[in-house]
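Good morning C.,

I know you're traveling, so I'll keep this short. The sequence:
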Amino acid sequence: MATNKSAFRRADYLQITVFGFALAALWGGLHTIIIPARLLDLVPLSEKSTYLGLLTFAGLMLAIIVQPIAGAISDRSGFSWGRRRPFILAGTLVAMLFLAGIGWVGSFLALFVIYCLLQIASNTTQGPSQAFIPDLVPVGKRGLASGVKGFLEIAGGVALLYPIAIFMDRYSASEGLWLWLSLAMLGAVLLAAVAITILTVRERPGRGGARPPLSATIFQSFKIKGRAHRDFIWFIVSRLFIMMAFTTLQTFAMYFLMDVVGVPDPAAATARFSTVAIAGMLIVAYPAGRLSDRIGRRPIALAAGLLGAVGIALIFLSGQNLTLIMLCGGLVGIAFGAFISSNWALATDLVPKGEEARYLGLTNLATAGGAALARLIGPLIDFGNSYSPNLGYSIMFLACFIYFIVGSLLLLKIRRR
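The tokens, ready to paste straight into the viewer:
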């Protein structure tokens, strides 16, 4: 891989983003199928949703904390073979141990501890790996690189779901082979991706000379100089609202399809809805990122957010027409795919030189934070539905519509660079 930004080649885009594919595959498989299935072995069936919510919320909080710290430490590192790859390699090897631990645990407490440790190890790799784009890609091609990144992460999130679903449908506590095959599949993808990253990405050596103490680096991990980096703060707030909109829809889609549309197979209908949305994301993620290099990041991100608001409004107005709801779900997917590519390219433009990994780690305040905050509307949905049939879902769609509009308009506060 070329280290000269002017000599960046097509294969280089894949080499610096393939690790994101593996991380998306890892957490897509764990969160969607494996963790919920393992909980059935360890907790009362009537309380499975509560335990799942507690577990995943803890993981989101750890992701918010660990990514900026790992990124900040990576920024200050002085390894001869680069600032990012040592953390990616070490974090992956540790993550492999905890991934295996998911198959061994025999209690919820043990699963909770192993899951949290896996989150720490995974986010230790993710914080530094995200900095490859601002480190190595020419400014005029960062939209293209972000498009490749977005495409691979969306694809990674669904790539192994079908084979894992087949294996885990046959899994039981007395027949654990299928669980181990699922975990081994995720581990193999993670190891392959880290091997490609370590062997093909060529970083510049880390900075030598005096560096601030580690304690000072950790303490400063969440500090943003408001006056100097005001645009980045607006970026975080804007991204937070958009992430809340999409995650709210994703989280409560099955209950909406079950209670309002009245589908006889809510789980299967939700899977079809998600598939259509993901297809929309995949179609636009790459071209949207590439187009942002030509016309700018903000116009595409702004248009994508407003399109998401239109999609939400159309789902609400579709009533019980499942076909229209599915098509509108695809429209929301197109909006979100365009947003994540162009928005990430904007992030790489806004991060200050020398602190790329730390600032990109801070974007998780919006990504994971939005995912966590989105779940807080659940009690409001239940309260609305108890007051009047399906009123809670109307409140949910109104909130998503507002999230999309506010998140989009806040992009206008970012000055063009």
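Safe travels,
E.
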